[in-house]
Amino acid sequence: DTGVSQDPRHKITKRGQNVTFRCDPISEHNRLYWYRQTLGQGPEFLTYFQNEAQLEKSRLLSDRFSAERPKGSFSTLEIQRTEQGDSAMYLCASILGLAGDNSYNEQFFGPGTRLTVL
Amino acid sequence: GEDVEQSLFLSVREGDSSVINCTYTDSSSTYLYWYKQEPGAGLQLLTYIFSNMDMKQDQRLTVLLNKKDKHLSLRIADTQTGDSAIYFCAEKGYGQNFVFGPGTRLSVLP
Question: What is the pLDDT of residues B70-89, one digit of tens each?
Fold first, then answer.
């Protein structure tokens, strides 16, 4: 257990439905990342937060995806009008970000939420 | 853009050494990482190396970095069945974006 939790662990939904996932990072970690991982691939960066500010979004993050981290603690990732191509494992990771971009940053990953869109 | 490549499969016998290779394209990478993922679990950081180093050893793990060729390797000495997992190479540039390879599935045969 890394200290990062995600809920739910599994989600099965029908195409067109909306889904929301939650990530609870390690409490003192100020940076939070969302990744998507499909079978046979490594995690692909989706977005990251520094405290409550969403600082970077991947081109993979279409308009149907939205992420929030309202109080700089937990984060939610919502997918609207799900498509079968959204089926994947959604991973969350948190970091205690040190000053300066050249810092060593150990990411602590949650167990992931596996989404299946029927 | 940034890209990280790895061979997809590796099989070794228990007790032998495993060497997992990775190539990356971003010459501005500051840190390079090796993560391990076991079935049904999230990724776990195994080790990392700063880009101005060429080798790092941590117990059974040895990381070699050839910055000129943009080649990273992970050697696991005395490989055990518990080392069977998927190993991901990842790089971090000057931004906050991490780029992961596709993973190498290591199978350890008894």
Answer: 999 999 999 999 999 999 99
